[in-house]
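ok so I'm stuck.
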Amino acid sequence: MKKITLGILLGCMAAPAAAQQPVAAPRTPAPEPPEAAATRTTQPIRIDGVLDDAAWQAATPITEFRQLDPQEGQPATERTDVRVLYDDGALYIGARMYDRQPVRARLGRRDMGMSASDWLTVILDSNHDHRTAVGFEVNPSGVRRDQTRAQDGSEDDSWDPVWEAETAVTDSGWVAEIRIPFSQMRFSGAPVQTWGMQVERQIARNQEFSVWSFTPRDQPGGIPRFGHLAGLERIPTGKRLEILPYAVSRAENVERGANPFREDREYGMDAGVDLKYRLSSNMTLDATVNPDFGQVEVDPAVVNLTAFETQFQERRPFFVEGSEIFRFGGDGTNLAFYSRRIGRSPTLVPNVAARDVSNTTRILGAVKLSGRTQGGWSIGVLDAVTRREEVRFRLPGDTEDQRQTAEPLTNFFVGRARRETRAGQTAIGGFVGAVNRSLDTDALNATLRSSAYSGGVDLFHQWAERTWTLTGFLTGSHVRGEETAIISTQQLPYHYFGRPDADHLQLDSAMSSLSGFAGAVQVSRRMGRHWNAFSRLNTISPGYEVSDLGFQRRADRIDAEVGGNYNETRPGKVLRRYGSYASVLVEHNYGWENISNRVFWGANGQLLNYWSGYMNVSTSLPGTVDDRLTRGGPAARRTGFTTINGGVSTDPRKKVIGDVGGFYQRDGAGGDASELFAGVTVRPAAHWEVSVGPSLSRSHTVAQYLMRVPDPLKTETFGTRYVFASLNQTAVALETRLNYTFTPALSLQVYAQPFIASGDYGAPKELARARSFEFLEYGTDVGQIVDGEIYPNGTGTGALHFPVVEPDFNLRSLRGNAVLRWEWRPGSTLYLAWQQNRSDFQPFGDFDLSRDAEGLFGAAPDDVFLIKVSYWLNP
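replied:
not stuck anymore, here's the structure
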């Protein structure tokens, strides 16, 4: 197997070199980035979408735009005139978008999608570091979008600066007038400055995308290829302090049964404040005291029968805004910083109905420092404190109340620094993370780690006109705690130090700390306008542990991957664009057991009528080792599997948009999984849209883990019986969204997800021997089942026996919320929110849509209503 693995790896490493050979033609040189001048004005500018102020006539126009889509490099089909002014308080953008056809516009909430409307986008690299920028976008209806942007093309639309935009539709097209206060920007303190700038225009009817600073697609573009905005002199920082106090009133109508600590109807009020202070023109301090995130969309329902936790998206504004600076060391499954650890659900909560505890840990306060130093360092520091949470509870049959600490007072700290040189082509950075808990009870000491630390460095380097890219990181972790807590840490699903057949792992019951490291390096090459290739090596030591501050699903891994892709973005006779990729992944653990060999291939394309499709295929070759199937027991044999998924979506410009897709997987043991999903978005008018996304999934798992039972007689699996059962699962979900926009400042969003799932377990069985995927069924191949008890070695006096586990389930869930958002003055917002949860659990096992839907809507609803108002002050 090692020879086969090595052969696959060497073959794939040769593939990019072979692919490079046909690309011999020299590339067309990219034009020099254009330059525009900002004109200072002392006259007042009215933001009314008319552009009749005299100062606009004195500004130099930007008129040269070239297409990226659909006809790359050709002049834009419609004329655009953009001018830039500034005064002591703000930057002004005035633009006329001429159009010989009717303008396409939609009303929507701030940061809405872009595909069905015309847009004007202005992106500013105000630091002129060629790596980071901020974007301001507006459509003909006055809807605004804003985001931070990174060199890799990623966008973060959680950034919500306070700025103004007014638009008007005219007989010749449409007009946009924008005011961006300097207090919302970050820039150096130099008396004379040049900023990077890009101006983009999107015409929806033909999906035309044109830009001011054009870079051919066969060359690296993005922020380093922006044009230059010159003429900015003696820019003041603007007002330094922003204060955003809030008040919230909450009403809960929740069926709590016989819980003596809570009422079915409860009411409460709360208050807090957010602060923003500009320490300099390029450094900002954000703080929040007693934050409330009741208006944030709820998480969807899931069924997770694996040993690993589910990762949910961060939606809380304080932690989402500016999160790009804190990204470090991610490999798709591990994150050094996962902000949802801050304010998580309390840990030590007794599993009894009679209890009183918060669903989340209250954040007492958090502070965030971010910006850029004069020496060129990008800095990000975040510190948050969560309070000590206590739970009151009463055990069944007791009349006396008990109390215990459910979550200790905890401090979270994250520090990030990055230094860019060579016009953004080289960057080196560092990361530090720390979690410290005040463990004041024996139960907390036995369960939680008292402290956790992590830190590392990362590198980004490009050369040869940015056609070669080298990225990498190296990080370490160290956790401390009582011996019982560290034993539990060693037994987590991504560690499993107690595996009996793993010579490279050893469970140490005397340890009071655990350390590890992780690292990755990747080299990628861009070859001409079509080809890209990469080689990547990742490693995660067995003791690497970052789940106190980050998110983790892997450890004890070494993997190498090589691959490449081909992309064509110029329209042909049939396709507007298309692409394909392929890669090979080889994975081992630190005992050098080959645990996975996978091959990936995929393709995507878009027809001239704007219909799109994609397909992905992956194959896991059989004969490797599965060191996680028994959840800490001996390794089993991996049977291999093949996965296929694909989908088709219709023209995004239409009033009715649809997509349909599917997924299918089959493994070598006879297990399979499939899913069908679809979506329809209807836009009957410019101010509202409805989307419905049904999905149906089914799966048959040959061996679903149930439990382990010690038995010295079971020598084939090291003195323990590992009990499994087949499992048939079915799930139906319907994600529904309604967006209704009254004005760009007043909108209603509704989200609902009915979810029904069932799980039907088969006869119990045990793993026959280590390093196999063979099972012995109780009552047929081995042992007996008598009166609901399993006797694996036969009945008799003192015979080993344990109960039959039948965890069949039917889960019915309905989660949803409705949020009315009104920005009643710039930066000040009023929220009216309603959240409802319905859930019901039954042990039927079989799937009956009619019965389960009736049970879902017959379940008692939990309703939460809140009114939240904030007021923006800029003294």
